[in-house]
Design brief:
The complex is a heterodimer of chains A (644) and B (484).
Chain A: H1 2-26, H2 31-53, E1 58-68, E2 71-79, H3 81-104, H4 111-130, H5 134-152, H6 159-190, H7 195-201, E3 209-212, E4 215-218, H8 219-234, H9 243-246, H10 252-261, H11 264-273, H12 275-279, H13 282-303, H14 309-329, H15 333-363, H16 383-397, H17 403-416, H18 419-448, H19 456-459, H20 467-482, H21 498-507, H22 516-543, H23 547-554, H24 556-563, H25 568-617, H26 622-643
Antiparallel strand pairs in A: 1-2, 3-4
Helix pairs in contact in A: 1-2, 1-4, 2-3, 2-4, 3-4, 3-10, 3-15, 3-20, 4-5, 5-6, 6-8, 8-11, 8-13, 10-15, 11-14, 11-15, 13-14, 13-18, 14-15, 14-17, 14-18, 15-16, 15-17, 15-20, 15-21, 16-18, 16-20, 17-18, 17-22, 18-22
Chain B: H1 9-14, H2 16-34, H3 38-60, E1 65-68, E2 73-76, H4 77-103, H5 109-127, H6 131-149, H7 156-187, H8 192-202, H9 208-225, H10 233-240, H11 243-268, H12 273-296, H13 301-322, H14 325-352, H15 368-371, H16 373-387, H17 393-407, H18 411-437, H19 450-468, H20 471-481
Helix pairs in contact in B: 2-3, 2-5, 3-4, 3-5, 4-5, 4-11, 4-14, 4-19, 4-20, 5-6, 5-11, 6-7, 6-11, 7-9, 7-10, 8-11, 9-11, 10-11, 10-13, 11-13, 11-14, 12-13, 12-18, 13-14, 13-17, 13-18, 14-16, 14-17, 14-19, 14-20, 16-18, 16-19, 17-18, 17-19
Classes of the chains: A mainly alpha (644), B mainly alpha (484).
Chain lengths: 644, 484
């Protein structure tokens, strides 16, 4: 049992040691604690996964935390097939990111702090995925949010970073509020928070309704929608997507961690974990599918025109997460988790690759180091980064036989089979795939091809990143190419879709009713859009570099809307942020001054007034203390006789 | 009562732990004459306590409930559990005292002897089955603590505190004796079991004289545990006394007061529960309010912790108000947790005291996290625990008390308690803000000693362990009390 407990505990230990002794003793040796800790977790996770592969499911209550009558909260671990996949993603990608950070964060003032938070982040995420009840999951859920705040705002002296950290935290609060209500409602409904008990009893409450504000609401739908609300926040689905692109203000390894292995995958994981509940509510399922499908295309359109290299990848994450929810919403849970798994590799690779580029430009003293418009021609300076980038791009755009192809295709095929709504969502998904191909290749061409557009002086200083950065990149590239081979569909390979059958005990395995011909059609169209997007990007940025400018002037308003991300941030700013700030300036400030400070300062000052009388007593006149006691006795006696 | 007084071996056996402490105390006073290094005296004190603890451990399993000395002294799980709290309190206090008393230039052998005597007084209180024995134990404890409070003879505020404590303590003793005599007058006995028997057979639960007797006793106990409005002495005394004694007093006498309160109210006055609950509810509310609100405006950390301990007395009282064995269990559980977190917090306060530097102002905590991250992290744990934030033990303590209170149907009272608990979070977290978010105004030198480090390690680990694995302690408390 200790073995399983150590998986999350090792990173926690690393956090405690680094945060306590980092500043004075460990300093820039923090990685000597953090990296072995996560590698230890990884090794233990692998051995746990092997046990799961051999058909064992680990569900143990480590101990009961609070027992009081019917209220029983236990700390427990559940490692089933779903958790196993998550464990592999979190610890393997986490390890690579840790190693990468050794090089990337080298020389940073907060080096020990960075590794401390990173370790805490991994601990939180592992708690979240390994929990066997909702309360522990909630604990991990909130802790992940807190860590993201620490890490996004890591360079807190930069105002934009501090703001981005706050934004991530506050936007997540909205989602978490729903999630918290969902968990409470689950407890009220089932009298338990344990997964097995809740999922086992879920069938019994189908059709039950509760009255909410005078409306009759289906209970299980309400629970699912509240839970999904939390997932939308964590996994950055429209309309809660706004925090994720800003989250790139953090150091690049953090972006990679948030976008690939932790945090955003939490929402997808949670919905997959609760698939039993969701399956009982068609309304909730449709909501998930529509939100996912819409987000996929919505975020992809924004990514088309962004110039910041990390921002393009960030919107690509939002879009890919949309795919995952699309899959969950049509009941293809394993396809969603499969995509989560492959996506983790190529997205971590894209982020770390862009980090490598930024790192190189930063050291070449190029201003505006994240702007793709000043890059170009980096291919010859950074060959390793270039080639791993190409592999990641091939994978994300869905070029056959790479990871991304299999998982994305599985999602599109399962969506296609899911009725009329499914056909429509499939169309959205396929369109988003076209856009994905375009913006991904645009990124490559702007960054690595053509001529360098920044300072020529700087160009001479650009060179490939050190091994500690490129080795994790190369390892991730292997994952980006090959990770998906566990899910080759049966049409290509007999006994394929290994991962689907592996996850089936937890997530079920949808038996499609589509024909082989239809499946070939879906696959063919996927390949077609992937190549079409590539070709369009090639024409626009290599063949005919003047074309984007022409298009830009022809569609200036469209470009403007897209470039400004549909003005969603501005919309929130006008409708929510500014009114709240204004209100807080006036009403809340008044409330703050009069009421809050009234309590904080006023009550003491009131008591100060009151205690001026008491102070007089406290000048040493004992008799007054005795008098207070005597009066107290009289009051108590009087009260008692009066009350009886 | 007309039996000839005979003392058997059984009787002596039952008070071996108390005897051990008193004998070791006497030995310490003699040792003090010849031993120059007071550390050795302190270690002798710890050794004596461990010996007594061993005695209590041996007695734990002997019998369920054993009455000795003509039914005047009782040995049961309830008493034994409280004795464990006293031992822990004593050992931790000695650990944090050694270096500190040297700095205060008050390192006398009597100091440790008096700590032992005070503790044996508390133990007699916890085991008292008769009001007279209770009174004896209470005075033994009280007189020892009066002296300990005034031990820093050259400091006026220490003297002042001792005098105040002594006079007001005498005043409260008068109430106790008056209450005892009224009760004796009505029931014809001072034995707790016989009082309970007399109240039910004579049907005098609604007799006004009984009310008065009950109220006077409650007043005296309220004084000892510092319930408002009988708390007036506490801030002055806590501030003036040596900090190690403040730590000792904020736990030991309080726990002893609650021990007799639980035994007397639920044992002797069980039939008058409706009456004493009526009195205790306003006292609890007033206590939580006074403690939480006045603590907000304190700038001296010892005074702040004094008010905090007043507020905690209010929470502990809630379990007694619940009026069930489970409620009492929750209170005792809370007391044990409170012992660790409060002494831990005081230990950090003591660490800040160095030669020529008082270190009692809240401002002294500014920037502590930068200069001394470990000490700051420990203080953070204690403050979180006192505020009742999971996963620390303080949360568990409050949780069970509130749970039992709600279970007994006092939901509004629980809500009031939670509100005050939220208010009190402010002044605990203010320390955290000072430590982590402000810049230091001067350089702080921490006074360290091996025993101090042990005490800090034990308290912080226990606060976390009891917060993460609370069921073990709770099981232990239940096991001890359910026989009662």
């Amino acid at each position: 049992m200790l073995k399983y407990i150590l998986i999350p505990l090792l990173p926690l230990l690393s956090f405690i040691i680094n945060i306590l002794f980092g500043r004075n003793y460990i300093k820039n040796r923090a990685h000597w604690i953090a990296v072995p800790a996560i590698l230890g977790s990884f090794v233990l996770a692998v051995s746990a996964c092997i046990e799961v592969l051999n058909g064992k499911v680990i569900d143990i209550n480590v101990y009961s935390w609070i027992v009081s009558g019917s209220f029983n909260v236990s700390v427990g671990i559940l490692i089933d097939q779903l958790t196993a996949v998550m464990l592999m993603v979190v610890t393997s990608i986490g390890s690579l990111i840790f190693i990468y950070s050794v090089g990337y964060m080298h020389g940073d003032k907060g080096y020990y702090r960075f590794f401390a938070y990173l370790s805490l982040f991994i601990f939180s995420m592992l708690t979240l995925v390994m929990a066997n009840n909702f309360l522990i999951m909630y604990l991990g859920w909130e802790a992940v949010g807190l860590c993201s705040y620490f890490l996004i705002g890591f360079w807190f002296h930069k105002k934009s970073a501090g703001d981005a950290g706050k934004k991530a935290f506050i936007v997540n609060r909205f989602g978490d509020f729903g999630f918290g209500l969902g968990v409470i409602l689950i407890f009220l409904t089932f009298g338990s928070l344990n997964y097995m008990e809740v999922f086992g009893a879920a069938g019994g409450i189908v059709g039950q309704t509760i009255t909410l504000l005078g409306y009759k609401v289906d209970l299980i739908t309400l629970i699912c929608l509240l839970l999904f609300c939390g997932a939308m926040g964590k996994s950055a689905q429209f309309p809660f997507h706004v925090w994720l692109p800003d989250a790139m203000e953090g150091p690049t390894p953090v972006s990679a961690l948030i976008h690939a292995a932790t945090m955003v995958t939490a929402g997808v994981f949670m919905v997959a974990r609760c698939n039993t509940l969701f399956s009982y509510s068609q309304t909730a399922m449709n909501t998930v599918a529509i939100v996912g499908g819409f987000t996929a295309i919505f975020a992809a359109t924004i990514a088309l025109v962004q110039n910041d290299i990390k921002r393009v990848i960030a919107y690509s994450t939002v879009s890919q997460l949309g795919y995952m929810f699309l899959a969950l919403g049509v009941g293809a849970y394993s396809a969603g988790v499969f995509h989560l798994y492959t996506h983790a590799f190529f997205k971590a690779l894209l982020f770390l690759g862009s980090g490598s580029v930024i790192h190189a430009l930063h050291h070449a003293k190029q201003d505006d180091e994240q702007n793709m418009q000043v890059m170009g021609g980096l291919k010859k300076h950074m060959p390793i980064t270039y080639w791993v980038f190409i592999l990641a791009t091939l994978s994300i755009t869905g070029i056959p036989f790479l990871s991304g192809f299999f998982s994305k295709d599985e999602i599109l095929w399962q969506t296609f089979q899911a009725g009329d709504l499914g056909k429509f969502l499939w169309f959205l998904g396929a369109l988003a795939a076209l856009l994905t191909a375009f913006y991904s290749w645009r990124l490559i061409y702007l960054t690595f091809h053509g001529e360098y557009r920044g300072d020529t002086e700087c160009e001479s200083r650009i060179h490939e990143s050190p091994l500690v950065i490129t080795i994790p990149l190369m390892l991730l590239a292997v994952g980006a190419v090959a990770a998906g081979w566990v899910g080759i569909p049966p049409v290509f390979l007999e006994h394929g879709d290994k991962i689907g059958y592996f996850l089936a005990p937890v997530l079920g395995h949808p038996e499609g009713h589509g024909t082989h011909a239809q499946e070939y059609f879906v696959i063919a169209s996927s390949i077609f859009v992937a190549i079409a997007g590539w070709v369009i990007a090639y024409i626009m940025y290599i063949k005919n570099p003047g074309l984007p400018e022409k298009l830009f002037s022809a569609f200036r308003p469209v470009h403007k809307v897209l470039f400004n991300k549909y003005y969603i941030d501005e919309f929130y700013d006008k409708t929510i942020v500014q009114p709240v700030l204004k209100a807080s300036d006036k009403i809340i400030l008044a409330f703050d001054v009069n009421v809050i400070e009234g309590v904080v300062n006023g009550v003491p000052s009131l008591i100060g007034v009151f205690s001026k009388g008491l102070r007089k007593i406290q000048t040493g006149l004992l008799s007054n203390y005795a008098a207070v006691m005597a009066i107290g006795v009289l009051c108590v006696v009087g009260y008692m006789f009066f009350m009886r | 009562m007309d039996l000839p007084i005979t003392i058997t071996l059984m009787d002596i056996r039952a008070i071996v732990p108390e005897l051990t402490l008193i004998c070791v105390g006497l030995i310490i006073m003699l040792l003090d004459l010849v031993v120059k290094k007071k550390d050795l005296v302190a270690l002798a004190g710890i050794a004596g306590t461990v010996l007594a603890l061993f005695g209590t451990y041996k007695l734990y399993g002997v019998t369920d409930t054993q009455f000795v000395f003509s039914n005047m002294f009782v040995l049961d799980g309830y008493a034994n559990f409280f004795k464990v709290i006293f031992y822990i309190n004593l050992i931790l206090t000695i650990c944090i005292s050694i270096k500190y008393m040297e700095i205060e230039k008050s390192s006398f052998g009597e100091y440790y002897a008096l700590l032992l005597f005070a503790t044996s007084g508390m133990m007699i209180m916890a085991s008292a089955a008769d009001l007279i024995v209770l009174y004896l134990g209470l005075e033994l404890m009280a007189l020892s603590t009066y002296i300990l409070t005034g031990l820093m003879r050259k400091q006026p505020r220490s003297n002042e505190a001792a005098i105040k404590y002594f006079f007001l303590g005498a005043f409260s003793s008068a109430f106790l004796l008056y209450g005892i005599s009224l009760t004796y007058g009505m029931t014809g006995t001072t034995n707790i079991k016989e009082i309970a028997f007399a109240i039910s057979t004579l049907g005098i639960a609604d007799n006004p004289i009984m009310y008065l007797g009950l109220i006077f006793m409650i007043v005296a106990f309220s004084f000892k545990v510092a319930l408002a409005p009988f708390h007036m002495w506490a801030p002055d005394v806590y501030e003036g006394a040596p900090t190690s004694i403040t730590a000792f007093m904020s736990v030991g006498p309080k726990a002893a007061g609650f021990a007799v309160m639980g035994r007397i109210l639920m044992g002797a006055f069980g039939d008058m529960q409706a009456q004493w609950v009526t009195v205790l509810i306003p006292l609890a509310v007033l206590t939580m309010a006074t403690g939480s609100i006045i603590a907000l405006s304190q700038t001296n950390i010892k005074r702040m912790l004094a008010y905090s301990s007043i507020a905690h007395a209010g929470y502990i009282l809630l379990g007694i108000i619940a009026g069930t064995p489970e409620g009492l269990t929750a209170s005792v559980n809370y007391l044990m947790i409170y012992t660790f977190m409060n002494i831990g917090a005081f230990a950090i306060v003591i660490m800040l005291r160095s030669k020529g530097f008082q270190g009692e102002n809240l401002d002294d905590y500014k920037g502590l996290a930068k200069s001394h991250p470990v000490a700051a992290a420990l203080m953070l744990i204690f403050m979180f625990s006192l505020a009742g934030i999971p996963p620390t033990a303080g949360f568990i303590g409050k949780f069970y008390v509130f749970m039992e209170l709600i279970g007994s149907g006092y939901t509004p009272l629980a809500i009031i308690a939670i509100i005050f608990s939220a208010i009190s979070a402010f002044f605990y977290l203010r320390i955290v803000v000072y430590m982590y978010m402000k810049d230091a105004e001067q350089e702080i030198v921490l006074t360290q000693s091996p025993t101090m480090n042990i005490a800090l390690a034990v308290t912080s680990v226990m606060v976390l362990v009891l917060g993460i694995f609370p069921s073990f302690l709770l099981y232990f408390v239940r096991y001890s009390i359910m026989g009662y």
